[in-house]
Specification:
By secondary structure, the protein is mainly alpha-helical. The protein is built from 5 helices and 2 strands; from the N terminus they run αβααβαα. The chain is 53% helix and 8% strand.
Length: 72
């Protein structure tokens, strides 16, 4: 959480973060003290492509970078 908070402070709005457990990270951030900051900065958390195919369908549809503009 400290690293994400620092990233938002330095990089500003509209940042994307690819994390192996992005589906869990979203829940953790939503319940943390930086949740409001993450929402205001439009933070997008995605899972890496390999994890997306090894995980469940709901997670893949909600967090796979294929479905977000700006991810390669």
């Amino acid at each position: 959480l400290a690293a994400i908070n620092c990233m938002l402070k330095i990089c500003g709005k509209d940042q994307g973060l690819c994390h192996n457990i992005g589906c869990t990270s979203c829940k953790i951030i939503a319940c943390s003290l930086i949740s409001t900051k993450a929402q205001k900065h439009n933070l997008i958390i995605v899972i890496n492509a390999f994890h997306g195919y090894a995980h469940n369908c709901h997670c893949r549809l909600a967090h796979h970078p294929l479905y977000f503009e700006g991810f390669g």
